[in-house]
Amino acid sequence: MTRALIIIDVQNDFTEGGALAVDGGAAVAGAISALLAAHPNTYGHIFASRDWHDAEGGNNGHFAVDAEPDFVDTWPAHCVADTTGAEYHAALTLPESTVHILKGQGQPGYSIFEGVDGSGEKFGELLIAAGVTHVDLVGLATDFCVRASGLDALEHGQQVRVFTDLIAGVAPESSEQALAELAHAGAVLATSEVVEQA
Questions:
Q1: If we measure between CA atoms, which residue out of 2, 42, 16 comes closest to residue 192?
Q2: Is 103 in the active site?
Q3: What is the 3-state secondary structure of 170-194?
Q4: Which of 85, 123, 129, 83 shows the shortest CA–CA distance to 102?
Q5: Where are the membrane-spanning stretches (predicted)?
Q6: Is the pLDDT of residue 179 over 70?
Q7: What is the C-alpha to C-alpha distance for residues 8 and 138, in angstroms, rounded to an integer?
């Protein structure tokens, strides 16, 4: 069994003060760093995704360009490639071995499975190549990109745990619905206390 940690979109624009701030986002960043520091040998592979949207255009309807955003399918501009908003939050400390995944390049890109690494290889192919069978999922936001990534991981055949103490969502009700959907699909909802030193 090979277990990976998947860190979803812990970026400045999704944390307090950002373009699409999620309450508790900065705390999630710090808590993920604390988990990695306390258990440096638990994960054979660590993947971290970032939204990396194009500055020009609407990213295939994702950015509200000529209308007000509905905050469901259309959003204000956020996580534009090579801007401060797209960078990881300062409280997130990642090991050098972390594989960085960029998604949403000209597209909405909710799921990490829509992303690629620096060489252009798709995330799902990276998991297969690494022999990953189990993933622990953390990050932002519960009701959007964490939800989409978890459902895709299950569809991909992964055994999925979602650490409910290391996620934060846009809204309480939609976050609860997302977790219920993930659990119904086969994900295990747990806290990071289940992580043991390898």
A1: 42
A2: yes
A3: CCHHHHHHHHHHHHHHCCEEECHHH
A4: 123
A5: none
A6: yes
A7: 6
CA distance 33 to 93: 5
Q: Which of 136, 143, 145, 152 is catalytic?
A: 145
pLDDT higher at 68 or 10: 10
- Give the β-pairing of 188-190 and 45-51: unpaired
CB-CB contact of 14 with 118 (8 Å): no
Return the closest-CA partner of residue 72 out of 81, 60, 64, 80. Answer: 64
CATH architecture of 6-128: 3-Layer(aba) Sandwich (3.40)
- Of 103, 136, 143, 152, which residue is the catalytic one? 103
In this structure, what token pair is assigned to residue 92? 């997130």
